[in-house]
Design a protein that fits this description.
alpha+beta, 11 strands
Length: 159
């Protein structure tokens, strides 16, 4: 199974997913930001609280053989991508729109539009939409679902 299919297998479906996507699309249209023509992942990480813990991912590329991945990650105000780390994957975040409150290792940072944050393997990190929704571009090594290590053991993916 390809990594995107693994992500889609744990995505929200039905009315909740459609409502979230419609809200996201309205924000993106207001920002005049185009997304790739892909099926987005509407993730609540298996916790059943999308408004609090979740995000919407638009995968641009996940080229394992070439060694790179690119994704847009969208969070609503107050919504958090949960605390996690990667054993192998190096990531770089670029804030396209909005502002994020980021926990990275022992530090808490605020990232604004245009800010860049390299995230080293093995470092716990999470981010929350601050003061409104936010959109970031993740450039990284290829995504492998099993490389995720979530601090919340209730999350049923990764290690």
């Amino acid at each position: 199974m390809d990594e995107l299919d693994k992500g889609l297998a744990i995505s929200l479906r039905g009315t909740a997913a459609e409502e979230a996507l419609e809200r996201c699309r309205k924000v993106l249209a207001a920002w005049q930001v185009a997304m790739p023509d892909v099926q987005p992942l509407v993730l609540d990480f298996g916790l059943g609280d999308f408004a609090g813990t979740g995000l919407i991912e638009y995968w641009i590329a996940n080229e394992a053989e070439a060694g790179y991945c690119g994704k847009y990650l969208f969070v609503f105000e107050g919504q958090t991508c949960p605390l996690h780390r990667h054993a192998r994957k190096m990531e770089t975040f670029f804030v396209v729109k909005g502002r994020l409150l980021v926990n990275y290792g022992e530090r808490q940072l605020v990232l604004n539009e245009g800010d860049v944050l390299p995230v080293q393997p093995g470092h716990f990190h999470s981010f929350t939409g601050e003061g409104g929704p936010a959109l970031l571009l993740e450039l990284s090594m290829p995504c492998q679902v099993q490389d995720n290590d979530f601090a919340d053991e209730r999350i049923p993916i990764g290690r």
